[in-house]
């Protein structure tokens, strides 16, 4: 539909829309699918051609006093399939009525064609005034590019904006950095988000535009710190990768979009020939961290290059403060001393990094580049001083994370640890992990530093934290593969043979304590004996694994480490130490005489007592033993917002004595009398626990799981008993539903351990199958269990066109 204004018929832009659709059509018989870079170039040419023809048609010529200037994607020559079209119509001493008429005939066809348009009509002084008052507008106009019309007029604007940006940067720099920091806080880090914002996230395309703005201000060059020789190909390659992914995101979504959704990742990865969604995540992490590091360097360099005014000009030249041999602080950065000789000093890399980690000062980009170019390889085995500097670096807490990140982005960390390449930017395979594998290793190192006084060998704890997942990204069990790699690395570092063996054992068995504590019956002496035998009775190794288990869990993600997991592992370690010392294991306490009396008397009884940790409570339920009792009891606890952490089941005569360790979701637990009344109602059929739980769950959001649940079977060493482990996402009353599923199949549960980690649970049940154990029975149990746990959302039904295709 054409618009009319003042009797003027506006010609449409249907030809522009059709041409864009043809470029995006990958199924056409005559055209092959354009790769993202070619598509962007074709879109730039298409829009420029249309604007040029339209401008000539409207009389926007070289001597007209009118010009069309592009900003945004078209201005940067980065036109994406559904990017907004950002245009400025400049005019100079032209009749306002004529300008309004030209503007209408330029804007209306684009609106009619449903092309998103951000437009303005300005004189050069007006545009410069807007740029001076509005930071966002100024950043946009820095990317301005002449399209058609009076080029001198366009150059007057472009030159004026850039000149005023350079002269005014000192007063605007703090606001620019504050805006950037706010954007990062709002959008998060691309490298560590499941669904990152490619444009606004930290390490995204906005950061590259920030670097360009700082370069225009002549405060830094456009590619600070990272050239094409570093891992990932440097900043230019990272920029192109981010653009390519965002281009495909537009193409897949059929509209403008900045956030990469998980359901689109596989298709985008395949279109870019990167691989699946995990390969795409790894590529994005590498690119975003490259951009993020370059942005930090650029901002730091710019801050140091700001022109001084007034008395600041009289400030004395910064003093070079010695930090270590060949390493000094200068202007807030760690740099090489004037007499440093990196060509003859292979350990200088680690001294510089250790100084940075300890002081919290960043390493100068120039220093890192010089080390990358001149520093020789460390000979094997490493000199003792080099190993000591590595341990100083790893022991610096969170300062080590930034230091190693800088070394890694510039290729120096990979020179020290070639094995790092397999875990660099490797995405986690489960939702519990927050970080990429390499960042997780460094987070574990930082956490281990705070636990160093708990072990006799803090050096081996730090190295074990650094290497415990080094086997990931390779074929085979990562603990086994990692142990072999740790042996090679330990020898390279110059460790004593006995320390090499211990380091290898740390990596091999780093999951032993948490797996055993959360999935085995600690009251069974065979459980403790198995751990002791695995560690050859080495109490020092046990202490190292205990500290590493905590640091590893804390570095995994929120909710993975808590009071209950800490108490489980602590109890296992205590029992192992008793065996290693030749002392008898503690035996389960006999059932309280009062409980036995209540059980023999019959009826329903509930006791509530404080637990071992601050927020836990122990609920003891005594009731006539019958199928479904565990389900009803666990359901009543769930109805009162009591999260079950573990359950142990016993009996006396015809009564069951079930004990639950619980944690209130909020507030204090209800009175034991109320729990008893509700349990009596549930047993008698007056309260349908499963129905109430289902109603409450229906009122919540996000009922679908992100990951598919898994059921694993493990032997116990006791005939007729097996352990069924469930890994799934949590839901209201999950233990009650699971107990109901076991009862429906006719299986008795001897004990249960429920470990909740964020949204995920790892639940272990000791099932008494007796002589009926068989693959058929286990299959029935699995199906019953999987029927009551959250499942991933069903795939959407194909559209008619997809079904036809």
From TrEMBL:
Gene3D superfamilies: Beta Polymerase, domain 2, cca-adding enzyme, domain 2. Residues 618-694, 723-801 form the ACT domain. One of its GO terms (molecular function) is [protein-PII] uridylyltransferase activity. Pfam families: GlnD_UR_UTase, HD. SUPFAM superfamilies: ACT-like, HD-domain/PDEase-like, Nucleotidyltransferase. SMART domains: HDc (SM00471). It comes from the Bacteria. Keywords: Hydrolase, Magnesium, Multifunctional enzyme, Nucleotidyltransferase, Repeat, Transferase. InterPro entries: ACT-like_dom_sf, ACT_dom, HD/PDEase_dom, HD_domain, NT_sf, PII_UdlTrfase/GS_AdlTrfase, UTase/UR. Uridylyltransferase (UTase) activity is inhibited by glutamine, while glutamine activates uridylyl-removing (UR) activity. Its EC number is 2.7.7.59, 3.1.4.-. Residues 437-538 form the HD domain. It catalyses: [protein-PII]-uridylyl-L-tyrosine + H2O = [protein-PII]-L-tyrosine + UMP + H(+); [protein-PII]-L-tyrosine + UTP = [protein-PII]-uridylyl-L-tyrosine + diphosphate. Residues 1-322 are annotated as: Uridylyltransferase. Its cofactor is Mg(2+). Modifies, by uridylylation and deuridylylation, the PII regulatory proteins (GlnB and homologs), in response to the nitrogen status of the cell that GlnD senses through the glutamine level. Under low glutamine levels, catalyzes the conversion of the PII proteins and UTP to PII-UMP and PPi, while under higher glutamine levels, GlnD hydrolyzes PII-UMP to PII and UMP (deuridylylation). Thus, controls uridylylation state and activity of the PII proteins, and plays an important role in the regulation of nitrogen metabolism. Has four distinct domains: an N-terminal nucleotidyltransferase (NT) domain responsible for UTase activity, a central HD domain that encodes UR activity, and two C-terminal ACT domains that seem to have a role in glutamine sensing. Belongs to the GlnD family. This is Bifunctional uridylyltransferase/uridylyl-removing enzyme. It comes from Nocardia halotolerans.
């Amino acid at each position: 539909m054409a618009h009319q204004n003042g009797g003027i018929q506006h010609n449409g832009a249907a030809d522009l829309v059709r041409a864009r659709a043809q470029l995006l059509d990958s199924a056409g018989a005559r055209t092959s699918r354009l790769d993202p870079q070619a598509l962007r170039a074709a879109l730039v040419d298409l829009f420029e051609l249309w604007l040029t023809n339209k401008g000539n048609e409207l009389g926007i010529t070289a001597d007209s006093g009118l010009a069309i200037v592009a900003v945004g994607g078209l201005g940067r020559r980065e036109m994406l399939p559904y990017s907004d079209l950002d245009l400025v119509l400049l005019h100079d001493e032209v009749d306002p009525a004529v300008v309004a008429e030209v503007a209408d005939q330029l804007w209306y066809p684009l609106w009619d064609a449903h092309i998103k348009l951000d437009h303005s009509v300005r004189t050069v002084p007006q545009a410069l005034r807007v740029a001076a008052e509005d930071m966002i507008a100024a950043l946009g106009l820095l990317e301005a590019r002449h399209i058609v019309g009076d080029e001198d007029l366009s150059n007057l604007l472009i030159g004026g904006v850039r000149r005023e940006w350079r002269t005014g940067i000192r007063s605007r720099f703090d606001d620019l950095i504050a805006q950037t920091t706010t954007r990062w806080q709002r959008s998060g880090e691309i490298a560590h988000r499941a669904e990152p914002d490619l444009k606004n996230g930290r390490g995204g395309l906005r950061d590259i535009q920030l670097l360009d703005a700082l370069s225009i201000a002549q405060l830094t060059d456009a590619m600070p710190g990272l050239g094409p020789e570093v891992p990932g190909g440097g900043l230019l390659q990272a920029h192109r990768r981010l653009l390519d992914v965002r281009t495909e995101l537009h193409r897949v979504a059929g509209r403008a979009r900045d956030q990469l959704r998980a359901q689109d990742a596989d298709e985008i990865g395949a279109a870019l020939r990167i691989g699946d969604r995990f390969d795409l995540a790894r590529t994005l992490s590498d690119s975003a961290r490259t951009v993020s590091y370059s942005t930090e360097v650029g901002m730091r360099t710019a801050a140091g290059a700001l022109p001084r005014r007034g008395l600041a000009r009289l400030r004395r030249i910064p003093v070079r403060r010695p930090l270590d041999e060949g390493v000094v602080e200068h202007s807030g950065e760690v740099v090489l001393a004037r007499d440093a000789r990196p060509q003859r000093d292979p350990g200088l890399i680690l001294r510089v990094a250790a100084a940075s980690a300890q002081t919290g000062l960043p390493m100068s980009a120039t220093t890192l580049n010089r080390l990358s170019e001149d520093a020789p390889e460390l000979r094997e085995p490493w000199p003792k001083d080099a190993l000591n500097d590595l341990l100083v670096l790893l022991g610096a807490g969170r300062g080590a994370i930034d230091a190693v990140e800088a070394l890694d982005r510039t290729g120096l960390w990979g020179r020290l640890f070639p094995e790092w390449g397999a875990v660099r930017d490797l995405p986690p395979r489960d939702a519990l992990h927050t970080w990429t594998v390499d960042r997780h290793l460094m987070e574990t190192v930082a956490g281990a530093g705070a636990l160093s006084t708990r072990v006799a060998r803090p050096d081996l704890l730090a190295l074990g934290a650094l290497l415990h997942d080094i086997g990931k990204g390779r074929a085979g069990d990562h603990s086994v593969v990692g142990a072999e790699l740790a042996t090679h690395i330990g020898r390279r570092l110059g460790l004593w043979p006995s320390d090499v063996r211990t380091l290898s054992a740390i990596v091999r068995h780093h999951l032993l304590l948490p797996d055993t504590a959360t999935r085995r019956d600690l009251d069974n002496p065979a459980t403790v004996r198995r751990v002791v035998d695995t560690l050859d009775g080495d109490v020092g190794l046990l202490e190292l694994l205990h500290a590493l288990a905590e640091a590893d869990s804390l570095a995994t993600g929120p909710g993975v480490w808590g009071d209950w997991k800490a108490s489980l592992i602590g109890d296992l370690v205590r029992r192992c130490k008793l065996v290693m010392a030749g002392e008898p294991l503690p035996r389960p306490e006999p059932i309280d005489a009062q409980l036995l009396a209540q059980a023999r008397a019959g009826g329903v009884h509930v006791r509530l007592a404080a637990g071992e940790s601050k927020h836990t409570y122990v609920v003891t339920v005594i009731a006539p033993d019958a199928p479904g009792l565990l389900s009803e009891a666990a359901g009543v606890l769930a109805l009162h917002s009591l999260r079950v952490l573990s359950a142990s089941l016993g009996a006396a005569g015809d009564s069951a004595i079930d004990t639950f360790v619980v944690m209130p979701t909020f507030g204090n637990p209800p009175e034991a009398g109320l729990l008893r009344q509700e349990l009596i109602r549930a047993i008698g059929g007056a309260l349908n626990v499963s129905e109430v739980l289902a109603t409450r769950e229906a009122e919540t959001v996000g009922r679908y799981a992100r990951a598919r649940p898994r059921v694993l079977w493990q032997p116990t060493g006791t005939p007729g008993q097996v352990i069924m482990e469930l890994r799934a996402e949590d839901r209201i009353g999950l233990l009650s539903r699971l107990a109901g599923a076991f009862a429906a199949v006719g299986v008795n549960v001897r004990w249960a351990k429920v470990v909740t980690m964020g949204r995920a649970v790892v639940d272990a049940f000791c099932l008494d199958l007796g002589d009926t154990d068989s693959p058929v029975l286990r299959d029935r149990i699995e199906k019953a269990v999987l029927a009551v746990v959250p499942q991933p959302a069903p795939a959407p039904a194909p559209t008619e066109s997809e079904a036809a295709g």
